[in-house]
Amino acid sequence: SKRGAAGAGSQVTPESMDLVAKQSMPLCMYRLHTQLKRDHKLMHQGRQQFWLFLKGAGMTLEDSVRFFQGHFSKVMSVESFNKEHLYNIRHAYGKEGKRTDYSPYSCLKIIMGAPPGLGQAHGCPYRHQEEAALSSMLNSLAIQSVDKAQILDQAKRGNFQVACTRHFEAAHPRAAAKGVNVDGVGNHPNAWTSASLEYHAQAGPAAAAAQSSSLLVPAEGAAAAPVAVGSSGAAEMATD
What we know:
Shape: globular
Order of helices and strands: HHHHHHHHHHHHH
Largest sheet: none
Distance between the termini: 15 Å
Number of helices: 13
Number of strands: 0
């Protein structure tokens, strides 16, 4: 889906990631971001899911390298990061190997993919997480209890995409009525994020600044020294 990149543009940067995660990511990506902030690493399938989502959301290759290096270098050397991950990020952006322009994962691909194991954070939380963990995530995003009950009920019934759509509706009241393009919300994480960014942009600069000051703390990956976006290491991209 190209829509996310067109809708988000430069709003998704290492510096804005904490705010974007808090207000404009569906749970599947919010969970990956939360684990990355906590552990400064993601397992293979989580990296693929998150790299391609951020690419689709408009994060540039240079910013993606800077963001992930800033986190990963807290648990490994910059040299190890360059050797183990730099090539693969560039590959995700179509800059290495066959230069394939990989698409971000759709909801269906995420739901039907391999479930996360111990220490992994990929997949669809509505399908792959216990109700208590789902409830905790929704609480951390300040979702009202009546809305949360409806979301959890849909997840319990196996209506994972409906649950995700209800989360969007609860977090973005009257979005469609305000003219926000909600096509694809519940079918693709990037459509969810694109619609959310559009919704919050409509609030105007003053509201955005107020939200930034209350929600945004400096992204831990933001201050990392830039690296040359060259290539090294071996490919691991196997998304299709």
